[in-house]
Amino acid sequence: MRPELLSRVLSLLPQAGRRPELNVYAHMLRDYPQRGGKGIRSELLLASARAHGAQQGTPAWEGALWLAAALELFQNWVLIHDDIEDDSEERRGQPALHRLHGVPLAINAGDGLHAYMWAAVHRAGVPGSMEEFLDMIHRTAEGQHLDLSWVEQRTWTLSEADYLEMVQLKTAYYTVVVPLRLGALAAGAPPAQAFTEAGLALGAAFQIRDDVLNLTGDPTRYGKEIGGDLLEGKRTLIVLHWLAAAPEAQRAAFVEQMRRDRPDKDAAAIAEIHRWLLGSGSVAHAQAFADARAAEGLTLLEGALQGAPDQAAVRELLDAMRALATRDA
Amino acid sequence: MRPELLSRVLSLLPQAGRRPELNVYAHMLRDYPQRGGKGIRSELLLASARAHGAQQGTPAWEGALWLAAALELFQNWVLIHDDIEDDSEERRGQPALHRLHGVPLAINAGDGLHAYMWAAVHRAGVPGSMEEFLDMIHRTAEGQHLDLSWVEQRTWTLSEADYLEMVQLKTAYYTVVVPLRLGALAAGAPPAQAFTEAGLALGAAFQIRDDVLNLTGDPTRYGKEIGGDLLEGKRTLIVLHWLAAAPEAQRAAFVEQMRRDRPDKDAAAIAEIHRWLLGSGSVAHAQAFADARAAEGLTLLEGALQGAPDQAAVRELLDAMRALATRDA
């Protein structure tokens, strides 16, 4: 995230404790935010605020900055808990928090950071923003529940529609829909109805792009393990599309690996599945689907922002959204 | 908690989802609140509101009820996460949530419930109450961090003062200090300064009583496993007092068991340690300490409430606090 947001985030968090143990706690809260996340969601919120007429140095801009800080805090506490739920190894190129400090302390640090998120929302003082955050968390938790319960139940008989429902709940609201809405609210404008449909399309495109990068990305630029989604048994559009037409032997080998917990998966078998996926047409299918959804979302968004007061900012926002859906890392 | 609070809590939570998986999610959110917790903290908040003049049927009382519902939601999401952090087996006589659904889904359900707590705080609309909840969560998370890091590091070289600092942060604020303050705020009165010192004394007494019951309680009435604190390696005043004077062989046997993770502990050795503790004077020492702190806290609280508008309610509040510190379950 941009430095002025990071310093806002850090200004809310404890610096040090009265005891050595509480120094560790303070350090844990500050760790993920300082690992250099891209700040995609906060930038989108700020771009939306500018498009809706919030100008730097005004109270509206100040409100937008606190909401952007809150969104970054949301992202960071969710990542701490997600990394435990998925038993991820890395986050932004470093070990996941629970791998440094153990699961109990990491759950607790995530809870602490969650509360500081609400402190930022409160500080923003933007009418309607608390409802947006409540709604966002409810949906994100539902999406996360869907995803985790499929992992837990070893459910692979899922349609592309199932996947899209999960991704909309788990990713699209907090990545696109809510940042667009919060930017409007910060500027004192009612959020356009069309933000929801546009954001769901763009959010799905964003997540599918992430799924593609997880298989094909540059390990030095992509912050997570390449192939990590396979190790974590994640449902992706790519895998569901491939499964529907895979040779029976490949399908059986896949399901056998996915039946195992992460530590029991066979690295060689996973590497082979990874190669099958790359060799199938499923990555291209998923990317084409994402491109179509992105184009659809951009058209809707362009329409929704036609009357917005700052059209230069609207163009920047649309460019940034387009770049996100086609990013390389 | 009282039925009218439970129905308020449940009215905020999802009833059922659009998919079978989301029915499970809704069920998980509603599970702990429906297990019949005693509602100690919400009753204290309501008693404080009455003492400060909030009358049933008024907007002030309505605000107090929503804050009480929020406090119950706080207690319940914290318990879901605590049970994971401590790897507890039971909660209120039934398996802990993560033992029913696995750790990932239970972490996520706790996060969902956390957000609904803020919905209840928001619904109450009582000025200053959001700050109270923020402050309460920050302190509780710090106390939990202390407790968990001692478990993690196998730290037993702790003084009674260390234990008390942990318990004040982890238990006293959310159990006594903040309910007293929120009751005043709901009634439109500034919380008395002395609530903090009174609440810290009473909260410590409450927790020490809980530690005593965990060793000596009636298994049919106490909602957790008797001896569970030993299996979880919890620091208590009883254990720290006993360790300071225990025969070397007993001390060594204790430390050897506490070095092990819960599943590796030897049940017979733990049962023997349990007997040593019961046979030592340490339970009586801890109970006497708790009684003294309770008396001190009650005196401070009586003084702080001398000028409160409803003195009948003040007497009820003091009686309830006295009962808590000497309860049997």
UniProtKB/TrEMBL annotation, chains A, B:
Q: Which PROSITE patterns match?
A: POLYPRENYL_SYNTHASE_1 (PS00723), POLYPRENYL_SYNTHASE_2 (PS00444)
Q: Which cofactor does it need?
A: Mg(2+)
Q: Name one Pfam family in it.
A: polyprenyl_synt
Q: Which keywords are on file for this protein?
A: Magnesium, Metal-binding, Transferase
- Keyword Lyase assigned to the entry: answer is no
Judging by the UniProt lineage, the source's domain of life is: Bacteria
What is this protein's record name? Polyprenyl synthetase family protein
